[in-house]
Structure formats: structure tokens, C-alpha cells
Amino acid sequence: MTSSANESKQKSSYKEFTSSQKLIYDFFLWILSSIFDCFFREIRPRNGYKIPKEGPVIFVGAPHANQFVDPVILMGQVQKRVGRRVSFLIASKSLKRKVVGFLATCQLSIGVNRAQDNLRKASGKIFIKDLENDPTRVHGVGTKFTTECMVKGLIGLPNSLGNSDIKEIISDNELILRKEFNLKRSSKIGKLLSGSTEFKVADKIDQKQVYEQVFEHLAHNECIGIFPEGGSHDRTSLLPLKAGVAIMALGAMTHTPGINVKIVPCGMNYFHPHKFRSRAVVEFGNPIEVPARLVEAYQNPETNREAVKELLDIIQDGLKAVTMQCDSFETLMVVQASRRLYQTNFAERLPFPLVTEFNRRIIEGYERFKDDEKIIAIKEEILQYNESLKAYHVADHMVETAEINIFRNLAVLIYRSLKVTFLSIFALPGTILFAPVFIGARIISKKKAKEALAGSVVKIKANDVLATWKILISMVFAPLLYIFYSTIITIYCYRKDYFSNHSLILLFIASYLLSASVTYAALIVGESGMDLFKSLRPLYLSIVDPISLNNLKIQRRELARKITEIVDDFGMQMYPDDFNLLEMSEKSTTTGVDKSGNKIFINEEEEEDRKTQELRQRRKQQKLERLRQQAEVETSGNISESSFADSDAISRLNSSNSLSNIPVFSEYIRPRSSSASSTGSSAPLTMEAKGASEALKNKIKAKMQEKDE
């Protein structure tokens, strides 16, 4: 096994990335991350300390809710956290696109051919005689299954209604599918197959070359990224995972014995992923180490399928721990409303990453107790409350903070209206300058979403492609628009003989920077203005219809009380050890602020590990210093013991230069900082200090007794 692995390794044409490729990767990732920072209001990592800093790693992301945005966000967070580069697997179809293909190549992506991308029209029509009892047996009229199809190839329905693998070809007019078509996806599927329909076929794709490239990549301790659902979607739950990720991990460890491939589940959690200035949290799960028994089972042809399936189940469990999954959009709305209502009890705001943890816990609780009468009743009440909010065009957090004081609210309304007007005037120039990009991105992204929806059986509204195309359009058209504005300004200044002492190139560059600065300033100012504008509605309601607003507040208060009782009751059953999220919040330590002025939180476990190492080093040095000083004291005591009077010892005990100068007291008894005392290593330190303190007290007591005698 080892010799064959070495031979294949020698024959491999794998080439490590050059310094120039890595530089290009870092440069374009920095550009893309900067652009994404403009599109998203906030991108936060959670549990980033769990990312392995060395060795081969496969990053598994889900849900794939933002087509080409997800990989860039994940790559950016990994590089910020541990400085590692991730090569993502991408469909070869996407690599053929000009902009996407260029950027993917710069990001060291690995192309993968997919059978569904190679579907072609076949001869004749197909139908299924017995959809209920024999749904995998396909019959054809005028078909040529033996020449146009192949075993393990793909057969597809028109309008992307579904695909299935071919298990067996019996004749030109009959074949067996490996799995029946999913009739639940659309009512059209059953109608087409009951009658007769045109169809498409694709040959089996040999992925050996791709797997070999991945194996070699991992053998060189590099990182691979993959979204195992197979494609992006806008569903509220995960799609079935493809087996490729498990094959890559097991195959790499078989291909190169001795390497330890780790799989890191990554939860891509968005709040309105397709909307401008939304938020995202990337949560990293515990690294999964591939069991040796599965590697052995994978090498056995009789058990390799079971090994792949078991590892895939382990990966899926890891992804479920870092993602939010709901059975419907309605359930997701109920979950988010429940979290906001319960959060009313918190005296402080939860860090944003913990909001996703709270949502996940509520989802788990809902799935477990959804048949309980209390849960059914509270769900209906929350849905009614949401409808009330829609009717009054106000958000839940506005109801929470609204105060019914007509004269005060009138003054606040006037003040905020003036402020919104003032901010709008400042944001207007940049908004007008950037309007062509906004309008173009909106129109084109909706068009692309319609195309994606027509070609997919898993998308609901195709919202997963909106953010991608908005960003791509902005990346292309914004620079062109700035060049256009800069050219006009330069020509105008040249004809009017303005700034004649400066070169036209310098004037053009200054105009370009001015255009970009004005639009960026409009973004920042406009965002503040929009937040204020949204707060005007509840103020207006409190003046013209205070009774309705008060009823909303009462309804919310009662809902919050009921939610609190339910969460406290069922929550303690599910999380008896770590029910209180506020305690988890307190375990987060701020390490500074980001460029937006927000605090950066890290988990205490990582900080504790770092402080433990520092504390061990300090204790080691202190122990050596204490032994050295103790030796010096004993030596000096033996030489001049007779010259010291007992009263002198007592005077030292009472002086300010006595105990505080003894190393064991000055180093151990002095109160420690809260950050240091929070570590797990402080307990042994305190016990050692107490022991030293008791020993010294006993010596002093003995001296005093000798003097009294």
C-alpha cells in the first residue's frame, strides 16, 4: 500500500502554489473582502479558535445561501484568523464565466465537472407506467437508450424538474433508475411522467483527476473548501449532502498514509442574505478527525460505501450543530420573533454571534416540543402579533422602545425629521452619482434570479443569487462609472482652464478619488439617516393613534411573559448545564474594536488557553527566583544569626519593609487581575501561596514563643 502510494505520488503532476500565486490570492481576497464590507453591515466569526493552524483541512460550509459570496466570506475569515489559504471546489461551468472564472482562478479554486451541466437533448419521449409501485422503471417511445445513455449516467426532465442516475439499461426502450424522481418537488413531474415527455441525458463524469488533485493538495498540508449540498439555494433547511466530501477525506488518507485530515464544519448564518447592509456570522464547529477504522473500511471494496456513509453522517451532524434549520419560512419567522421577545429580559445586548446560538436553541426546542399545546398556542399568538406589526408598518424593536408621551414624542419627531432631512441632503450627491449602479444591479440581479429559478428544482425564490449579482455588477460598473465621471470633470476643467498648473492625469486621479469618496460618504451617512427614518413611524403612531400603539405594547409584553415561561421551562430540560446565555456572553472577552468601532469578541476558552501558557511560564520563573532567594536568606542567616536580636526580627515584622518584600507574599498574595484569575490555573497558584503563607507564619510564631520564654 505504501509503495503504491509513493509511486502514484511520484507520477503526480501536482505543483505547489508559487509565491506570485499566493500574492495574487491575498491581493484579490483583500479587494473582495473590502467590497463585502461595504455590502454587509457586519461579518462576524464565532469559535474561530477552533480552526486548525496546521495540517490538511477540509472546510465544509452550509447552508450554501449566497452563491459566490459564501466562499469569499469563508476564505476571508480563515485567513484573518489563522492566515491560511483555502482552495474551494467550484463547478467548471462557473469557471467559464468571465468575471467569476477570473476571480476563482485568482483564488486558487479547483474546477469540478458536473453531469447536470452537460445534459443534452435525447431522442424520443419517456414515461413511467406505474408511478406508485414501480417508479424507477422508465419506458421510451422512439428512444435509443443503448446508444445515447450509459450506466451511472444521468437522465433529466425538461425545465430542470429533476434528474436521476441510471442503474441499468435493459433495451433501447427500457431502463432502470437508481432512484425515483421526487414527485413532491412539483405536481408537473407526475403529469409529465404519467403521459410522455421529452428528456435529456448526460454521460457519467470521471472525477478521478479532480480527486487526485485534491488528494495531493491535502498531502501537502493545504486547505480545501467545499459546499457539500452541491449548489446554492434559498431554503430554510439543508439539502442532502453529496458523498464527495467524505470520499475526499477518506481517499486522501488512503492515498497518503500518515496524514491526518481534519474536517471543519462551517455554519454560514445570514440575516437577510440578499439584502444590502445585512449581517453574517460564520460559525466554526469542532474539527472532525477521521477515525482510523473508517479509513481501513474505505480501503475494503466490500465496506467502502458504509465508510463513506458513516463519515457523511458525522459531517452532517457537525453541520447541524453550527447552522439554523427550519421546516418552513413561517417557522423561521416565529423563531426569530421568539428570540426577540425573550431577549427583552436581558439587561444587556447579546453579542451578535450569540444571537445565532439563541436562534438555534429555540429551533431545537421547537422541533422537540412542537406538538405540545403550549407551543402550538404561542405560535399562533406570535403569528398574529407579526401580522399586527405588518399592518402598522413597524418593527418589533420599535414597539419595545416606543414611549407614549404625545408632547415629548412630537418634539422628538420634529427633531429627527429635521435630522433625516439634513442627512438626506448630505447623502443626495453620492446617491445620485451611484444611482445607475444601484438600479442596474437591482434589475440584472432579479433577471438572473428568474433564470436561476427556472433552471433549478431546489430553489424557492432564487434569493441565493441576488447578492452575488448585486456585488458582481457593482464591481464592474462602479469603476466604469467613476471613470466616466472623472473624464467629464477632467474635460470640463481643461476647457475652463481650471487647475491649469496641474497635469491632466493628476486631475483625473483626484476626480476619481473624489467620486469614490462622495459615494462612500453617502453610504455611511445614508445608513444613519435610514435608521432614523425607520424610527419615525412609531413616533408618528404614538401621536395620531396612541391607543393602537399601546395595545401593541401590551400584546408584546404579554407575549414576552409567555415566551419567557416557556423557554425557562423547556430550556432547562434541554440545557441544564449551560442554559443562561448571559453567562456565555460574559465569557466573551473584548480584544479591541474593529474599523467600524464595534467591539471584537473572542471566546474565553481561547483566551484561557493563552493565559494558562503565560501563567505556567511565570510560575516557573517565580519558583526559580524563590529558590534562589531562599538559598541566599539561609546562607546569610547562618553567617550572621548571632548578630541579629530577636527584637530586630519583630521590628521587621511590623515595618513596611517586611512581609511585602518577601517574594512569596509579593508574588502570590497580591490580588490578581480579573482576566488572570479567570483562568483555570489560578487555583493551584492560590493553594501554593497559602502553603507558603502558613509556613512563614509558623516560623514567626515559633520565634515569638522563644522570646516570651
TrEMBL record:
Composition bias type Basic and acidic residues, residue spans: 609-631
Q: Which domain of life is it from?
A: Eukaryota
| Annotated region described as Disordered, given as residue ranges | 589-645, 669-690
Q: Which SUPFAM superfamilies match?
A: Glycerol-3-phosphate (1)-acyltransferase
Composition bias, kind Low complexity: at what positions? 673-683
What InterPro entries does the record tag this protein with?
GPAT/DAPAT, Plipid/glycerol_acylTrfase
* One GO term of the biological process aspect: phospholipid biosynthetic process
Q: Which PANTHER family match?
A: GLYCEROL-3-PHOSPHATE O-ACYLTRANSFERASE 1
Protein name per Swiss-Prot or TrEMBL? Bifunctional glycerol-3-phosphate/glycerone-phosphate O-acyltransferase
Species per Swiss-Prot/TrEMBL record: Saccharomycopsis crataegensis
